[in-house]
Structure formats: C-alpha cells, structure tokens
Amino acid sequence: MACMIEFKKMYVIIAVIAVAALIIIAGGNLDYGGHQAQAAHYIHGDSWSDECESCHPNKYNACNKTFHVLYTSGTIAFPWDPLFLDPALKKVDTRLTKENVGTNCTACHHDYDAINNLDPLYIAPPTSATCARKCHCDDVEKRAVVWCSDDYATYDVHSNASVICIQCHVNGNARGNIIDRPDSFHLIKSALKKCIDCHVGVTHGMIADAHLEKVSCESCHIPALPGGELPGGSPIDSIDYSDGERRITYRAEDFEPTLAYYNGTHEGIPHPSSKDEPGALLKPFNVITITWWDEGNDSRVVKDPDSSLYWGDPIPLSHVRAADSNNDGEVNEGEMRGFDTGDDGTPDYPDAVLRQVDLYYSVSHNIVGEASALKTGALWCADCHGNTTTRIDWTLLGFEADPAETDPPTDFTTYNITVETIPPRPKPVEVINVPGLFNSSRSKAGD
C-alpha cells in the first residue's frame, strides 16, 4: 500500500511538471511570436547591446576594436577615395554609421533569413546574406563579386557548398587580402583562413605544387570575372575625371583578371608588389585606370604622375569644370594651371598635373568549380606557359620572358594536372621488446 501511495505522488508530481512546462512553452511562444527556439535571441526593437554583454562578456568591447567597426565609425582615417574623387560625388553609406555600429549589436548580427521576414530582429551570427546586403554588394564595382546575385552560388564553388563568410573570415577582425586601404589597416589582426586550412592533403602533382611557393591558389582558380550589369553594379574598367565630370567605363563582358604579385601589404595607391619581395605571391586583380588632375604640390607626384604611388592632392571637380575657359568640354594643362578662383591674378593651381594611374583591386572570390556560370574551369599549364599564351604579361611581372620557355619550345598542352588527396600517414609502429620474442611489435593505436 505504501508503495502504491508513493507511486501516485510521483505520478502527480510528473503531471504537474508536464502541465507547467506546457504553460511555459505556450506562454513563451505567445511572447516570442511562435519562435520559442529563438526566444533567447529575439527582440522587438531598440538596441540590445547592454543585454548582450550579460551572456557574452567582453564581446561588446572586443567588437568595437574590430576592423568593421573601426572602419564604419571613422576611427581610422582613409585617404581620398579614387573611385569617388570629388566629395560632392562620394557615396554616403547610411547602412552602417557611427551611431548604429559599436552601439547596436543588431547592425551586423541581423538574421535576414528569419522565419518571419516581416520582423527581422533575430540576433544571429552574421550570415553571408547579412554581409552582402549590409555592405558588400557594391564590391562588384571593384572586384566583380556578385554577392547580391540570386545565383551567386553558380559563380563561386564555396557558396555552392554552403560555405558562409565567417567560416573563412573567422572573426570580426579579419579583412582578407584587399590592398586598397593604407598600411595602417594591416596593423589590425587578420584571422583569414588559408586554402590549405580546409584543403589539407590535396595535391596537384609535383610540378603544379611547386608553384605554390610563388603562386596563390586564386591565380588559377579565378580564371574569369563576370562583366555587364550585375546586382550591386557593374565592374569598373576606368574612370576619367579630366574634364571635371565622373566618366565611367564599365566592363560589358566577362573578362580575365590581371595576374600580379602581392605580398600582403602596401603603401599608398593600390599597387602590386615586386616578384622579389618577401612573401610575394601571384594573385588576380581587377585593374581600374583612373585619370584626374592633381595640384602638383608633392614633388614625388610631379616627378612621375602616372607611376607615382603617392596619393597627392586631387583638384575638386568643380574647379576643373570651371577651368574650361573656352567651353570646349576639355581641360588642358594651360587652362588648369591658369585657373584663378578669386580673379586676383594669382592662379590656384600653377603646378597642376594630369595623372593616369592603374589601381589594383585584388580578387579572392568567384572561385570556379567543375561547372561555373563563367563557362570556364581552373587554369592549366598551357594557359600561362607557351608561345601562344596571352594570359600573363611577363614584363609586368618583372621577367624578360616566360621563365618556363625552352629551346626547342615545350608543348605545355600535353601536360596533365591530376588532383588527389593524400591520406593522413598512419601512426608509426612501436617496436616493443618482449622477453623471449624477437621482432614483436604493436601499434600505438592499439595501446
């Protein structure tokens, strides 16, 4: 009898717990719009920064020191932007500002893939969609990366495999290998993963693998870039400010990136490295030619305007337009140097020079797979080596000729590249001396 009473009591307790759980779940689902599973990271509005810190200690302050926050908050000063030379024409990005980045976790931790699309305030790790829609859609202008295209996965093998940004850019400090920012940015810790971190054990054969000392994987695996009108814009080929207007030429067709060396750092205008610089690897670039008038105050610029890597002082486009004294739509050196804003007999820019500079914007995405929207696969030996190749400008790279050139010429079209994965080496066998036995052994794994 006593056992029966105890059993009934236990049954009642279990029933009460079950009913209470149902009430809590039901009430919770009402409070969180039916998204109980996401309740801990679901808010109805306002900043959650103060509350975030209670569960994520030190993350808030650490976030404020990351590249993205320092960039958008204006903590780190930029030189003038050659793509938007005139302040009057410079784009104003209101998506991320000092007011909402560094004070509001939802600025980046914002789930665009939430179940209820009408209420996007689910706090989540930054998804690829978040990275694209918040900031990186316009990367298409510099790098032809079509983040915002619905079919981006057909252009990039990693996206097709559902690899998201933060799997390679493993923390907020990572910024990749772009070279269009000043050296001060390289002082910020980068945690970008390397190809080999995921593709460990992969070999392309001895000859191809030997290239990895001086050739990045991207050089062969980004054989082409998309052109034309793409989501977020179109890849830029050139910008001409010489007459005071912003005249842009876009790449209307798919195009080949330029291969050049880069060692991970640069000073001044975006440019490649010398092949002999430590750490220099061959990388693909979109090269944009930009023409503009400079005040001529920096002797290093005046000495060689088209090759100097110093930023100099661009002349405001309004002044360039006003310098066109004969109204023929073109501004020559005499007009620019004789321009006198105050009409007091003292020219504003007596040393003005016209610059035409190639700016190198590195590319690390649009990695092709076996099938690609770009209708091409990775490069092979003959794409870069051989008498008929036009893929590489060897003079640009610092060579007199193709270093693989032979006499008589080698037919590189006959070379075959195989891709294999080398399995991990087995653990070594430990020889154990056992009295009375010889050559007895066993594996460490069996200990």
Describe, in short, the structure shown.
The protein has 447 residues and is α+β, with helices and mostly antiparallel strands.
What does this structure look like?
There is one protein chain. The protein has 15 helices and nine strands. The protein has 447 residues and is of the alpha+beta class. It has a domain at 2-31. The strands form three sheets. Strands 2, 3, 4, 5 and 6 form a five-stranded mixed sheet that branches. The longest helix has 30 residues, at 2-31. It starts with a helix and ends with a strand.
Count of helical regions: 15
Q: What percent of the residues sit in helical stretches (DSSP H or I)?
A: 10-25%
The percent range for strand residues is 5-15%
Overall residue-averaged pLDDT value: 78
Order of helix and strand elements from N to C terminus: HHHHHHHHHEHHEEEEHHHEHEEE
List the helices and strands and how they pair.
Layout: H1 2-31, H2 49-55, H3 59-63, H4 67-73, H5 128-134, H6 139-143, H7 157-160, H8 165-168, H9 195-198, E1 202-203, H10 206-210, H11 217-221, E2 236-240, E3 247-250, E4 258-262, E5 281-294, H12 299-303, H13 317-322, H14 333-338, E6 353-362, H15 381-384, E7 420-421, E8 429-431, E9 441-443
Parallel strand pairs: 2-5
Antiparallel strand pairs: 1-7, 2-3, 4-5, 5-6, 8-9
